[in-house]
Structure formats: C-alpha cells, structure tokens
C-alpha cells in the first residue's frame, strides 16, 4: 500500500494536468494566477506559473529532498518506523491538493507527497531485501514495483472518470491504509540486531518466517549476526566509499538509476495524456493512457515472477534493447508526422503501439530491478547512506527529466527527444552486459564477497587454509 501511494503520486499529473489547466474555479484565485481564455470561456493558469512542468516536477524535487532525511532515519529509527512516520504527512499532502484554493497549495501538496513518496522509495526496498528469504527476494522486491504501477493505473482510471479534486481525495486513502496495515509486521531483524535488540530480532524473524519457536530461525539469525558484526566498521565517511568493495556496487546502483530515469519513463508517465494529444491519435487520449497503464501492471507482475527465474541481468538486457527499439519507432512517427502529414492517417496506431511495448519492456527490467538490486548490492554498514545517495540521485534525474521534457521537446523536436532517450537505453544495455553481476539466488553475503568485501566466511576459509 505504501508503493500504491507512491504510484498515485507519480501518475496523478497525467489525468489531472489537462483538467487543472482549464478549470473554471481558477477564476476565483485572483488575476495573478490565471488568465481568461475567450475561446474556451474558462480561466487558464497563467504562463507565469507554468502548471505542467512545475506541478509535475515538484514531486521529484520533494523526493530529492527526502533522500538524505530518509537515509538518516532508516539507520537511526528503523526501516518500518521511517515508513510509518512518512504516512501522516503523505495524507496531509493529498488533503492540501484536494482543498486547494490557490495554486501554491497545490505546489506545496505536490512537494509534500513527493517527499513522502521518496522516503517510501528508499525505505521499502531496503526493508524488503532484509526481511525476504533469498529465493523470494526478487519476487517480493518486484512486488513493490507492481503496486507502484497499480497505483499509477488507479489514478489513470479515476482521473478519466472524476474531477481532479476527487482524484486527489481518493489518492489520500493509499497512505492511510498503509499506516494501519504496517502496524502489524515487525521491524527488520537485521536493523534490530545492528542496534543490539537480539530478542526482538529473533521474534521478528519468527513472525516473518512463520516459525513456531526461536530454534527454527536460529541458524538464519546467526548468519545475520555475523553479517552485521563484520559490517560494523564505525562511522562511515566519504573516504570509505573509495574502497572497491563499496565503490563498485555503489556506482552500479547509481548507473542503474541513471539509465532508468534517462530512458524518459517518468516524462511518459507524467505527460502520457499530453503525448497522445500531440500525436492526434484516433483513440481518446485518456483511454490510450489507461491502456498503457494496464500493460504496465501486467508486465511488472510478469517481471516479479521472472526475476528469480530468468535473472536480473538477463531481464535488464532484454528490457534496455527493446525500450531502445520502441522509442526509435515513436520518434519515427513524430518525424513522419512533420515530414509527411499524409502518412499520419496510415500510422495513427504507432504511438499507442510504441508506448505500450515501451512500458511493457521497461516494467520487465529497468522499472523494478534497479530498486531490487539497490537493496542487494549495497553493503550493510553503508546501506543507509548509499541508499540515500542512490535515491536522491534518482529523484534528481526525475526532476530534470519531468521539468525540462517539454522544453527539450520544443528545442530539438519530439522525434529527436525520443531518439535521444533511445540512445541512452542502448548505452544502458551495453553497461549491464559489461558491468552488472547476476544476483539471482545469491545471499547478501555472497554478493558482497563478489565485490571483494571481507566477510566472516572469507576469514574462516583463510584461517582453515592456514591451519591445514
């Protein structure tokens, strides 16, 4: 439900922005916020306030600001507690948007919901990776992204049927339900052990594994203790990140976030309705957006099943290559639309076709897997700080892509805008082939050994070798 709330924040602007831009109620907000459109006989938000880029991108700015705060909180107060703390302001942000009587209230509401969504996007993958069994970690990590896409589809459907104010009010129920449900699961056993709460950690692990007694989880608990003990290296400073065992996984996590966002995914999610309006599709833009949302949910659900079978690396390669192809096709449509307007009638189906398959393949790989691997790759003792860095970096990219997407489109043309995203997808595919390790079926300790981190197992093996 926390991921569902994140999805509603990301998808909200697509159906809401066209409705907000022309809304008769804006006439009550004062001349500085709106201008009268004689052709449509309504007030339009003035160009000074620029609703589309700012209402869309302020969410990303909020997510960016939340990174350092959430990173500190997940280490200081716990993964579960951080998410619970984020729930109340999440609801408040939606209420600000719902009852807004001026544009600044919407801006502040979007900033607040973005901040809380950013906290969830950091804390939840860490919590999932630390509470999951090794053979289910990919499935459960991808399940987070499935719920994000369901949240996006939810606001696409409700936004096509209801006014944007009601859409905002209904969206506030996601974090409210989460607040109630998350009372029951325990805190991460790994975090509890790192804070000396061994009895609570044992009880938490029993709850998570459905065990009847502490003996049933004793072996796993001891492994977690060893991992936490070897990860306790005092306070983390910038110099620590220069160690190859930390620098390599951190750079891979950052690179995956880079290629995820520079694929243009959030520009497409935020402005899907406007993209279909630009394309002059034969199908109503709102319906096209819902169709894209449906396929996004189905593909992400399929990814959650495949991620522990096909593997993370394979899915990323397939995802990147296919996204590149369908972005090229989308660019071709807009190129032909300008170069030969008569062709538009023959290929009016191409924008919906391209975006549906772009979303499908994004959802199979580059959508969920970077978040799954962020929780897997980063060493325990720097996970809070490194996760904050990766999440802030991700939201920074979201901000720049969503804020300047329309300007980029106007500057180089929509065809070159999508072709640029395609080039980045191709580069991301090559990067995965060369640098990203497969983590399917590996424990968190085994992944750290891959990067050369000293672990208890390494030390024991070395001692046994010396003794022999």
TrEMBL record:
Positions of the Major facilitator superfamily (MFS) profile domain: 1-440
Superkingdom of this protein's organism: Eukaryota
Keyword Lipid metabolism part of the UniProt annotation: no
GO cellular component, one term: plasma membrane
Coiled coil residues, start to end: none
Keywords: Cell membrane, Glycoprotein, Membrane, Transmembrane, Transmembrane helix, Transport
GO MF terms held by the record: sugar transmembrane transporter activity
Topology within the bilayer: Multi-pass membrane protein
NCBIfam families: SP
Family under the similarity heading: Belongs to the major facilitator superfamily. Sugar transporter (TC 2.A.1.1) family. Trehalose transporter subfamily.
Name of the featured protein: Major facilitator superfamily (MFS) profile domain-containing protein
Annotated organism of origin: Allacma fusca
């Amino acid at each position: 439900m926390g991921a569902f709330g994140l999805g509603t924040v990301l998808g909200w602007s697509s159906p809401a922005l066209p409705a907000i831009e022309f809304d008769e109620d804006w006439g009550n907000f004062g001349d500085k916020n709106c201008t009268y459109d004689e052709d449509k006989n309504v007030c339009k938000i003035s160009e000074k306030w620029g609703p589309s880029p700012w209402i869309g991108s302020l969410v990303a700015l909020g997510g960016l600001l939340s990174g350092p705060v959430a990173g500190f909180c997940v280490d200081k107060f716990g993964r579960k507690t951080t998410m619970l703390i984020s729930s109340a302001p999440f609801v408040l942000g939606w209420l600000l948007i719902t009852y807004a009587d001026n544009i600044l209230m919407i801006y502040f509401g979007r900033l607040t919901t973005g901040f809380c969504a950013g906290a969830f996007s950091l804390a939840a993958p860490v919590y999932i990776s630390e509470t999951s069994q090794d053979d289910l970690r990919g499935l459960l990590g991808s399940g987070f992204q499935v719920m994000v896409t369901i949240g996006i589809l939810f606001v696409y459907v409700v936004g096509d049927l209801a006014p944007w104010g009601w859409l905002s009010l209904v969206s506030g129920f996601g974090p409210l339900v989460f607040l109630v449900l998350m009372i029951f699961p325990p805190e991460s056993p790994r975090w509890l052990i790192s804070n000396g709460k061994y009895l609570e950690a044992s009880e938490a692990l029993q709850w998570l594994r459905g065990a009847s007694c502490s003996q049933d989880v004793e072996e796993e608990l001891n492994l977690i203790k060893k991992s936490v003990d070897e990860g306790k290296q005092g306070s983390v400073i910038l110099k620590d990140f220069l160690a190859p065992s930390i620098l390599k996984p951190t750079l891979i996590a950052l690179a995956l976030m880079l290629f995820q966002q520079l694929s243009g995914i959030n520009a497409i999610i935020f402005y899907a309705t406007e993209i279909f309006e630009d394309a002059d599709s034969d199908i109503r833009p709102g319906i096209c957006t819902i169709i894209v949302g449906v396929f996004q949910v189905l593909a992400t659900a399929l990814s959650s099943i495949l991620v522990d079978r096909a593997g993370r690396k394979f899915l990323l390669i397939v995802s990147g290559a296919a996204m590149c192809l369908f972005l090229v096709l989308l660019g071709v449509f807009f190129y032909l639309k300008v170069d030969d307007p008569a062709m538009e009638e023959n290929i009016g189906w191409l924008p919906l076709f391209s975006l549906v398959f772009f979303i499908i393949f994004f959802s199979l790989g580059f959508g969920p897997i970077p978040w799954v691997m962020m929780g897997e790759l980063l060493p325990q003792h720097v996970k809070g700080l490194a996760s904050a860095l990766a999440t802030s970096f991700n939201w920074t990219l979201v901000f720049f892509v969503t804020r300047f997407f329309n300007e980029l489109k106007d500057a180089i043309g929509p065809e070159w805008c999508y072709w640029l995203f395609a080039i980045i997808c191709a580069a991301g595919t090559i990067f995965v082939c060369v640098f990203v390790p497969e983590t399917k079926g590996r424990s968190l300790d085994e992944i750290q050994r891959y990067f050369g981190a000293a672990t208890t197992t390494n030390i024991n093996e070395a001692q046994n070798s010396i003794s022999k």
